[in-house]
Recover the amino acids of this structure.
């Protein structure tokens, strides 16, 4: 039977083949890791919440003309996507200094960046995902000049779309991580967009509503993920 063979298992998701060689099935798990797998735990129902939140964002981005791998949400924990050859680069967009950037440049967390900051990291667990630039990417053969341009343009456009949308929901988009891949030679947005991969703060109280609650043991982790789904879709669970 060719259907539903597992082909990949990551920290938060499993990927299966489907009857269609151009499409895959992504299964969202409750497992949570931080600091490259050093901290491990479970966030109850995270898989369901991240699947719904990611599906919501992919549908929004599709409407706004950003090519991405999303086909449709199959069930609570499953999403059907186009098969991608993943580009081994993590693209991070930042609006407010936080996390590793705050540390690297010595700015206090929460300080607004006068211009958007775009960063690239080499997706490699053994090396701890080091920060790299366009020259490294080309020298290492991770992506072509054209693909780097595409990823950068899409990342900045996605930032505009998401920042504007979230503002209406009283959420500040501090920073987020994207992954891209190739499908029939086209660069498509892949992976997920969720509280695992974005920093969301309440616009008024500045309360953190993302994975930093798990990373930093702030408590109310599940509640934060539910709150994001609720603000986006009005869905209570
Ligand atoms: O840790 P750092 O400040 O570099 O993270 C920037 C953004 O990228 C955060 O929103 C974080 O959730 C996301 N990120 C991610 N996966 C990684 C590293 C960072 O989703 N491996």
């Amino acid at each position: 039977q060719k259907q539903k063979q597992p082909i990949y298992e990551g920290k938060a998701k499993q990927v299966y083949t489907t009857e269609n060689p151009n499409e895959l099935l992504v299964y969202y798990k409750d497992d949570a890791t931080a600091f490259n797998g050093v901290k491990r735990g479970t966030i109850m129902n995270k898989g369901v919440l991240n699947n719904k939140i990611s599906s919501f964002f992919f549908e929004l981005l599709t409407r706004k003309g950003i090519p991405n791998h999303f086909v449709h949400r199959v069930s609570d924990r499953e999403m059907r996507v186009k098969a991608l050859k993943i580009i081994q680069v993590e693209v991070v967009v930042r609006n407010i200094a936080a996390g590793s950037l705050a540390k690297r440049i010595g700015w206090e967390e929460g300080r607004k960046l006068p211009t958007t900051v775009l960063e690239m990291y080499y997706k490699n667990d053994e090396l701890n995902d080091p920060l790299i630039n366009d020259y490294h990417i080309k020298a290492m053969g991770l992506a072509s000049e054209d693909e780097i341009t595409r990823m950068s343009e899409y990342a900045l456009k996605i930032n505009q779309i998401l920042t504007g949308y979230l503002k209406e929901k009283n959420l500040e988009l501090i920073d987020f991580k994207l992954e891209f891949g190739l499908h029939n030679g086209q660069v498509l947005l892949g992976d997920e967009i969720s509280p695992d991969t974005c920093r969301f703060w309440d616009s008024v109280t500045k309360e953190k509503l993302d994975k930093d609650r798990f990373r930093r043991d702030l408590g109310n982790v599940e509640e934060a993920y539910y709150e994001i789904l609720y603000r986006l879709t009005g869905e209570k669970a």
